[in-house]
Design brief:
- By secondary structure, the protein is of the alpha+beta class.
- It is 26% helix and 35% strand.
- Strands 2-3-1-4 form a four-stranded antiparallel sheet, with helices on one face.
């Protein structure tokens, strides 16, 4: 498992928050209205796909940083 910072460029981003809560209900911590820490397996690209960040009709633009 890795720790990722997920930073939305939309405040508040309710779609992204809902996706994080759905896919990682016990593995996230909300830092602010547009920032989360998520514990997940895989890469930042895997997390992006799962949350719908790279989907045209998904959760909207965001940046993901991984911590090692």
């Amino acid at each position: 498992m890795s720790v990722f910072a997920v930073l939305s460029t939309i405040t508040p981003n309710r779609k992204l928050e809902a996706a994080i809560q759905e896919h990682y209900p016990n593995d996230h911590y909300k830092l602010s209205a547009d920032q989360w820490v998520v514990c997940a397996g895989g890469t930042s690209q895997d997390l992006s796909r799962k949350l719908g960040i790279d989907d045209e009709n998904g959760t909207g633009p965001a940046m993901i940083f991984s911590y090692f």
